[in-house]
Amino acid sequence: MKLNDNYVIHTIGSETMLIPTADASFHGLGEGNETVGVILRCLTEETDEEKIVDALAEAFDGSRAEMEQDVRSVIDKLRAIGAIDE
User: Fold this and answer.
1) 46 phi, psi to nearest 5 deg
2) Which one of 1, 14, 47, 72 has the lowest number of neighbouring Cβ atoms within 10 Å?
3) Which H/E stretch holds residue 17?
4) What is the pLDDT of residues 12-70, one digit of tens each?
5) How far is CA 51 from CA 47, 58, 59, 61, 81, in A?
6) What are the residue boundaries of the structural domains of the chain, listed by start?
C-alpha cells in the first residue's frame, strides 16, 4: 500500500497535515499528531502495516498493540477518503 499521489504531506512543528490536490476525491484537510506524521511518511513508499508499526516502535516508546491499533485506525481513515493505493 502507498499514499495516493493526489495527496501531499505537510508538517509544521509537531502537526502533520494531509492536503489533497485538485485531482483528489476528498476535499478538505486532514490533521494529525507526530504519530500520524510517521505513518504518513512511511506511506510515501510502498509499505505494509507491520513496517509502519516497526517505524512507530523506533520513534516512540509504548505498547506495540496500541501502535498496531493506531496504524489500523489511520489507514482505515485514509482508505475512506481514497488516499491509499493498494
Assistant:
1) -55, 130
2) 14
3) strand 15-20
4) 888 999 999 999 989 888 888 999 999 999 999 999 999 999 999 999 999 999 999 99
5) 6, 11, 13, 16, 22
6) 2-85
